[in-house]
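User: Modeling request: complex.
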Amino acid sequence: MKRCITLIILSGLVMVLAAGPVDAQGPIKIGFFAPLTGFAAADGASAKHSAEIAVDEINGAGGIKGRKLELVVYDDRHDSKEAVAVANKLIEKDQVVGVVSGSYSMPSRVTAPIFAKAGVPMTVAYAVHPDVTKAGPCVFRNGFLGQVEGAAGAESAVKIQKARRIAVLTVDNDFGRVASAAFIERAKKLGAEIHSEQVYKLGEKEFGPYLTKIKDEPIDLIYHTSYYNEGSQIARKARELGIKAALEGTEGIDSPKFLELAGPAAEGVTFTTNLNRDDPRPEVQNFLKRYQAKAGTGADMVGASAYDAVRILARGIEAGGTEAKAICGALTGLRDYHGITGKITRFVKGEVTKPVQIQIVKDGKVRSFAVIDNPEVITPPVQ
Amino acid sequence: MSLLLQQLVNGLTIGSLYALMALGLTMVYGVLRVLHIAHAAVFTLGAYGGLWTFAATGSFWLALLGAMAIAVAAGLAMERWVYWPLLAKPPIATLIASIGVFIALEEVYRIVAGPEPHAFSVPLRVRDVRLAGVLVTAPQVLVMAVTVALLVALWLFLTRTSLGLAVRAVSQDREMAAACAMNVRRIVSLNFALGSALAGAAGMLVGVYYNSVSPTMGDVTAYKGLAIIVLGGLGSIPGTVLGALLIGIVETLFIGLIEFPFPRDAWAFLAMIAVFLLRPQGLLGR
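Assistant: Request completed. Predicted assembly structure:
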C-alpha cells in the first residue's frame, strides 16, 4: 500500500516536471556549444567564459522583459557526431529558444541545418565556413568570412605596410585556402608581387623547410593563414633564421597563447581580427576587464565574438519575443548594432558587414594598428 | 647547393628528435617483442617533467635530468604493472593495453595540466653556427649536441659494459639468456629505463625546440615512431637511428626543395610499406 502511494506521488511529480517548460515566467533558455575538451579546448573555454559574462550582464540588468536568461552549455569536443547529439539535445530535451555556436566551422556546419529544420534561431560567434549561414534564413554570423579577412589582410599589407613582394604560407583547410586566395587576389590587384605560396598541413610544427626556402629571397612580408600553434612556430622560426620580412596573420593567431608561445618573436606581428583592444568604448573596455578577472588571461577574438553572438541573440529575443519567427524577423531587421567586435550595419543573408581591425604586437601587448573599412573589401561576397 | 645543405641541417635536426623518441620503442621491442605505444605518453611526460623541473630550478640541465627521471619512473611502472603481467597473453593483449595506457595518460595530462599548450622558453647559451654559408641555429645546435651525446653514451654502454652485453644478450634470445643464469627480469627493466630516459629527453627537447608543451604532443610521434622502427629493422638500434634520420631528411627535402604536394607525415608510412614489401627485416634488421 505504502509503495502504491509513493508511486502515485512520484508519477504526479513526473507530470509536473514534464510540464515545466510551458511556464512562461521561467528563465529563457538559450543553447550554447563549444569545444570544451580536445585540441580546441582553449578556444572553447574562452567562448564559454565570454558567453557567461554576456548572460550575467543581461541578468544583472534585469534580464529580458523581466525574465532571466539561462545558458545551456554543452561540449561538442570538436566532433561532428557529438555536435549532432548536442544539437538534438538542445532542441528536444532543453527546448531552447535560440542557440549560439561558440565553436569552430565543422561543428557549426553540421548543426546549423538541424537547428534550421527545427526552426531554432542560431547566431554563430566566429566559425568561418560559408556554408554555415546557408543552412537557413535564421542563421546569423558575427565573424568575418575568410574572403573578407584575406582581402583586408592584403589592404593592410600592400597599402599600409607598403609590401611589394609577398610570400604566402597557407594552412590546408577551408579557412586557410579561402583567406589566402582572397589575399593573393587582392594583393595582386593592388600591385604587389606574390613571390610564392606554400601550403602546410594543420598542426605543422616544423617550419624550417618552408622558411629556409624563402630565407634569402628579397621578400617584404610573409602572409600566413594559421592558428596560434602554427603561427607562433612560423614567427619563431622566421626570426631564428634571421628573416627580416614583416609577418601578417589572421584572427587564428588572435590569442594570448600566440604571445606566450611565440615569445619575443611575436613582436611586430600584425593580424586581421574583429576585436580592437584599444577601442575606447566603455562596453569593450568593460568586457576586457571582466574577461581578465574571470579567466585570468587577456580576452581574444573568440571570446569577444561569443559575447557578441549571445548579445545579438538576446537582442532578437528582446525585440521579437521567444517565438522563433519573431526572433528571426527582429535579427533580419537589425540595423547599426554596436557589438564589442564592431558595428554591424546589418545582416545580409546572415553575414555581417563591419570594419576589419588590424592589430599589432607591441612590447608584448596587442595594440591597434589600422582599421580596414573600404566597403569594396569588407562587404561579404554573398550572392 | 647552399639551400640543399641548409635543408639537410633542418632534416637532421628533426631526424635527431625522431631518433631519440624511437630508440626506446625499438629497445622495448627488442627485449619483450611488444609494440610499446604508450612510449609516446612517456615522451610527453618527459616534456612536462622538464617544464616543471625548469620552473622549480631554472636550470636547463637539471630540467633535462628531471625529464629523464620522471620518464624512467613512468616507463618502469608500465613495465611492472602493464607489460610484465600480460607477457604470457597473446601479443594483441599487450598492444591493446599499451594503446589504452597511452590514451588514458593523455587525458590525465589534459586534466592535470590543462588542454592548452604551455610555453617552455629556456634562455639558450649556445650560439648560431655558420659553416661555409650554412646556418645552424642555436636551438638546432642544442638538439643535435644533446642527441649525439645521448647516443654516444648509449652506444658505449651497450658495447663497452658487461651490463650492456647482458642487454644485448636478452634482446637476442630471452630464453637462452635466462638459461645462462641471467636475471632477465632486471635486464628488461633496465631496458625500459634506458628507453624511457631517452624518450623523456626527447620530449623535453621537443618542448624547448618548439617552445610548446601540450597533452597531445605525443600523437604524431606515437605512430611515426612505429614506422621508423619498422624501417630500421625492429629491435635494431643503429637501424632505428638511420631510419629516423632518413625520415627526417626525406620529409624536409620534399617540402623544402622539391615542391611536391604530399603530406609530410605520409613519407614515414610509405617507407614502412616499402620495407614490408621489399625488405621485411628492415634496413639494418637481422
